Amino acid sequence: MSLTLDSSLEDALGATPAKTLDRAFSMKTVGDLLSHYPRRYADPGELTPIRELPLGETVTIVAEVLSSSARAMRNRRGAMVDVVIGDGIGKMSLTFFAKNLGAAKWRSEDLAVGRRGVFSGKVGEFNGMTQFAHPEYELFDDEDAARRRADARAAVLIPIYPATSSLQTWQIAKFMARVLDGLGEVPEPLAAEVRTREELLTAREALEQIHRPQTRNDIDPAVRTLRMHEALTLQTALLQQRDAVRALSATARPAKPGGLLERFDASLPYDLTPDQQTVGVQVAADLVGSWPMNRLVQGEVGSGKTLVALRAMLQVAESGGQAALIAPTEVLAGQHLRSIAKMLGPQLGPLVMPTLLTGQMPAAERRKAALRVASGQALIVVGTHALLGEKTTFADLGLVVVDEQHRFGVEQREALRAKGSSPHALVLTATPIPRTVAMTVFGDLDTSVIRTMPKGRAGIESFVAPLAEHPGWFNRVWERAAEEIAQGRQVFAVCAAIDTTKKTAEAGEQPIVPPDGASGPRWGVVQLDEALETHPTLGGVRRAVLHGRMPSDEKDAIMQAFARGEIDLLVATTVIEVGVDVPNASTMIVLDADRFGVSQLHQLRGRVGRGGVPGLCLLVTEAEAGSVARERVDAVAATLDGFALAEVDLDLRGEGDVLGAAQAGVRSSLKLLRVVKDSGLIVRARELAEVILAADPDLEKNAGLRSAIERRVSDDDRAALAKN
Predict the structure, then answer these.
(1) DSSP for 231-252?
(2) pLDDT tens, position by position, 446-473
(3) Considering only Cβ atoms within 10 Å of each terminal Cβ, which end of the chain, N or C, has fewer?
């Protein structure tokens, strides 16, 4: 019986290989194995440059045997085989151990002079020569050599697969061959006329040509076809989820003449920016639509996303509905509540009773807050994950606002949405997202962008302090800080660690990116605070420290004191990255700036220059010019455009990091698809998916695409998609 993509690997290959593949790569089906694509291809005539092999890494090379000998070991039982292989320029040795001389001679004869093959092992060094100790290998002419040398297939490309120490690339290739030989019909995700128009191969041809190409010309059409299948599968699944949300019925939340929203707009001392107006109109229309709003709002730091969200909350409140704003940290939740209360003022605040609900509140205070929420008195609720607790209930949850989406997992968002009856959802992010990433990660959300900034901002200047070239500039950084403080302004100094002696990291923080070849950050909050204590000028200023391992009430008290102007210099980790609004803060100093991602540096810079005070951002780095780490820092200093930086970030880091683990399952499991390189293909896949679903919403006439989605998008992945 022919194999299908859904056949188990145990049926296809037997129990032992199936167990090996499952353990190495979590593969269970034929489809799982066939989507493990080669990372490159070796030509039997290609000889890899041995001189360039990196010590300590496991590599696979193509080389020729130059000498081979077997000998008994002198001081202990057993024998050794010494082999030298080369590529015409460099040489390296292979060492094998055997139980006896007979076994060693067999190995030496197998590796006869002149034979070529693929060799894989960990690169070491012995007596000044590069070495593999007991490598895995497969010789090109190991079976019926005469026939293969005479056969044109001797020139067939050799796929090199991502492998492990226990499962070599040629073992994977043999499994692929067995599976492909037994594979029956492969379902087509695209109709024949579409496939012809898009100049794609059949699904079967694509699998054959990517795993067993006859020439290099076979590879590109196969890759393009499989990338389109991947993009189409993802986009169709996302659009299906969007349509599933639109199939739900939602309670309309219209604004009323003379109501809360109109009164709030009339009380504003400034005009909305053009983008705030545009997005406001989109959100207002969503809130009276027949299905729940599901909208992502992207906006630069300080662009006024919170104001847009508050206007949506007030529109919901007019019908007695409640809005819950959930933030990733206690500090940010407290900041949001104070900001909302300030914007509402004494006239509107009591009407909606904005209420804070976090896990760190004193028990009595928390009970009072929870009662106001459950009774429906509090129409605007701000909190952290505490809002997700079973004890927290809402009277009529009509709107969920999620701030800083990239820090909040889909499961937590779903737990909050489940507390209402198909509530509207508004997702805010200050991290600009390139269009194709947004389409791939948030393809089931409607997207709005706020680019214009509120008037009255003095702007920010950014400079790199490259200590590798100018070590003396370190002192100048602190002189500048002292000059700003002398003018009555405030300064942030951000470190990549809490204490470099203890290697402490903060829970929930974005991973710190190590500079090229470096082992750890030079400065922690503890070390910088100690150093500033003895600084001739800054030692006497009002200084405080802030980091994520401090108690929440202490963190909040420090941030409030800083906001009131009672602290001149705040030494902190990235706990101050988002949401903290201190108009008098003029300077952001980031130490070990090469330890942070592009978007993170941009977020940190957005903490200053928020009022009428000009902003200054000093990015201190020891990264060498020309390194990738330095490129990140230089890119941030070169532009204030977060959307341009998002593209740079994507180019420098790759989409795997940009998508992030929080977007679980299908969204971070890209195989061949690359959101930068394949942007045009992703857009085209989206168009095709829209056309297909418009004509066939349940994919009854597109069984191949339906089965591809079922294979590619697991139940868990669907749950993850549904939670957006």
Answers:
(1) HHHHHHHHHHHHHHHHTS----
(2) 889 888 877 766 678 999 999 989 988 9
(3) N
> Nearest CA to 264 among 303, 321, 315?
315
The Cα–Cα gap between 220 and 218 comes to 6
Residue 51 burial class via C-beta count within 10 angstroms: exposed 0-12, middle 13-18, buried 19 and up: exposed
pLDDT of residue 65: 93
> 359 φ, ψ to 5°?
-70, -20
C-alpha dihedral, 187 to 191 to 193 to 198, nearest 10°: -80
Residue 300: pLDDT band with limits 50, 70, 90: confident
For residue 678, give the 3-state DSSP assignment. coil
660: DSSP letter: -
Helix (H, G, I), strand (E, B), or coil: what is residue 109? helix
Rg of the chain taking only CA atoms, in angstroms: 31
Strands laid side by side in the 569-572 sheet:
460-466, 615-621, 585-590, 490-494, 569-572, 543-546
Q: pLDDT at position 165, please? A: 64
- 689-709: pLDDT as tens digits: 999 999 999 999 998 999 888
Q: Is 101 in contact with 60 (CB distance < 8 Å)?
A: no
CB-count burial class (<10 Å; 0-12, 13-18, 19+) for 394: buried
Local structure of residue 476 (DSSP, 8 states): H
| Residue whose entry in the numeric block shows the structure tokens 């990196």 | 54
Burial class (CB in 10 A: 0-12, 13-18, 19+), 606: buried
What is the amino acid identity at position 122? K
